[in-house]
Sequence to fold (823 residues):
Amino acid sequence: MYGSGILKGMGVTMKHFVETFVEDFKYVFKGGRNIDKNMAIRQGPKAKGIFTVQYPEEKLPVPENFRYIPFLVYDTEKQDDKCTSCGICAKVCPPQCIWIVRTTDPQTKRPVPQPAEFYIDATICMSCSLCAEFCPFDAIKMDHDYELSSFERFSTLVYDKAKLTKPDTYHAAIHPTDWARELQEKAEAAKKEAEKAAAAAAKKAAAAKPAEEAKPAA
Amino acid sequence: MAAKAAAAPAAELTGPLAVLKEKFADAVKPGDFEGAIIANDKLIEAATFIRDELGYDYLSSVTGVDYLASNEMEVVYHAFSTRHTGAPLVFKARAPRDNPVVPSLVSVWPGANFQEREAYDLLGIKFDGHPNLKRILMWEGFQGHPLRKDWKEAYYEQDTKPFDSRWPGGHHRRAEDRVPFADNVNYPPGFDPVAFTSQADAVVYDRVKSMDPNAGGLTGNGNGNGHQPAETAAIDERIETDHLVVNLGPQHPSTHGVFRMVVTLEGETIRHLEPVMGYLHRNHEKIGERNTYIQNMPFTDRLDYLSSMSNNFGYALAVEKLMNIKPPERAEYIRVIMAELTRIANHVWAIGFLLNDLGAFFTPALYGMEERELILDLFEAASGSRMMCNYFRFGGVARDLPDGWVETCREIVFERLPRKIDDIDGYLTENELIRARCENVGVLTAEDAIKYSAAGPVLRASGVPYDCRRADNYSIYDRFDFDVAVRYHGDVYDRYLIRLDEVRQSIRILQQALNQLPGGEIQTGKKQYSARVPAGQAYGRVEGPKGELGYYVVSDGTANPYRYHIRAPSFINLTALGPMSIGQKVADVVIILGSIDIVLGETDR
Fold:
């Protein structure tokens, strides 16, 4: 029958329209549409009614793995950069947007494991996260802040070390799982270290013992 | 590398290659790869033999390689059989680098048309007997052939990455400051930039004018009306009509990006269609040859930016073939899950935008996008990015699935998607407007689809049940129970239906994969930032949502690929666009293009 398609289509739209208001009304009693918990439902597999998010008034929460321009982690415990300027991130970076100047000791002229300068050109960075993935020191991580737009390209979007460095508490807050893994690895390393030290001490004692035993005999 | 290759002991030719050798004797020689080198003067004869007698009827990939060291150019052909599964028949032709001329195979496989033009454009290999050997991605008048090893781009810094300027003395300096534009541009002798006018358009229009408007396209009824029934398309002989050349695009909502179709119209009927592309060209392959192996992974995301997971998959397969490693079980399952989710996301998008092209402005598209959005949320949770996933690694995947991911995915795959796909099916399939506009429009027969190297849904909608997932059984696809979707009319309507069929099959695969998903490791060996890839060459291909996506990678044992070529399904499917459109109405061209489903990031590379 001609015209049935139009009626059917109108029906679909009407259903969607009504559902939107019914859902809206329900969220009034659930703490509003625009809180993270409800946002996950509104945009999840059980979503009904309107699916759009009114950015920037409403924002979707980002998942932990979300990656945007990297930042450098500052170890608040040791009061030091975690970065050792080994250069792996700069070597693996696909668009080659990482620039590192290694520190050299002025007296010995030997490299010091610390970056003197560190730049990331955010206009070139493709947020691929290879740097964070291959960093052996957990010193570079991907950020969650995706609102970078600025009025001037050249002066504001080349990030230097000061702009890139963020405390590890920030990293812990946005990447809880990754942080837990780091802590665990650290604890394991410390335990191993302690065991090694204990073993070395025992060995030393064992080595000293026969010597002591040998003494009276002599 | 090439010198080393020549010194390698020549392997015996086996299987179909032995038959080829028997027939053509000295014209066929073994190389340092699994395939044969065919002498140029016998190439067309041998190709016909390969197609007709050996049964390799489908020419998948044609590309060139520039061997600077041995001063040679090589053209590499990969042919498959649409009736049998198994490895490709690889054959090559060689020519001296200073005047590389190779006979064109367009007369044997019309699907070689665009691919040979691309090899001519980027490598300067001349194909003798090609009907239209013009540049295709670069503009006419461009100097040089950018994929040659001695060609340097405008902001050239170094042959290979990583660049030495980045570490340890990496003071930030923009490429534009280091190499100011115009300092690095080579003008031909006697060139006057002020007087210069581009001849690029003139070349296209000359070509369009030179075409016989009554030549006809496909194996139609011979009256120049393609497959249209004579009574609707025939134009009254008594009326004198002019031919009108109209540009559809490059800026046109129907072209899904910057793509241009120069059409010759007689009234509303199309007499000739010339696709013009390359507006988004960035020489992805040159970038790829400067990159290290792992650095290419995020770049593959940007090819078909709607299905980055599939792009990753193909590249990972090609390099894994070279490295001779296999990912662990769990990683294989995750890969298949991601690839099939990508297919669903791509197809609901394609269906939505086909409806857009039909004039149902964005309402159906948004229903499709809702499902796609949920899938992209899954990608974001697993890989960190919705579209530029960069999720596959050589011998595994980047990171394990986060907590709760499988549960959400199960809910979507088992509960939501089957219902929603049925909804979309119910809304659209029997709609009288869609049937009236799509049925018997843009017909491509099975023979033509094979001839023009059409791939993916376009090929299968024409009645050729050919799917790389079954033909190659790559990864772990042999473990899943699914059917290769096939439809037989080859028109726009069938290309719409086949996408629904494929989504349903993908849901089947996903349900099995999610039920079988094992635990364990996600990476074979230690993940390295500089992959060690032994010298050799490999062709890795996957059934991407748009069709067969192939990566031809040549390694010379260094940290960077020597040659990195992509068989882009969007690009090669366009070969059939012109012939398919002849005899159709101008409004139908829009939906024919929509039914091929191209993404310009992949077409133009």
